[in-house]
Design brief:
single chain, mainly alpha, elongated, translocation, transmembrane helix, transmembrane, membrane, TatA/B/E
Amino acid sequence: MFGIGGSEIFFIIIIALMLFGSKNIPDIARTLGKGFAQLRHATNEIKNEITKSAEENGLGDLKEMNPLNDLKDINPINDIKESLNPLNDIDLTSDVQKEIDQAKEDIEQMTGPIKRQR
């Protein structure tokens, strides 16, 4: 719960008991509960007013109006990635093999042919 363990919650409860006393904690909890209920009621009222105002202005049901619904089939990021990727047209294995062969030739020119020792 919010990254708080059981011992930390227990410690917070002990501190609250010491600060407020056992007689005041139920009153504080009741006051906090009423405050949260009023906050929830206020947010529901605001939400209802916004919905009512949208319906009056002809916007209809706001749940159906999701601009992302039209974009579900479009995936421009993959298209752009593939078109801008410079490695699509390059055969890396042949380029690497060319570099390896060139390095072998350079070594052979300096030291002679490379032979395995048994």
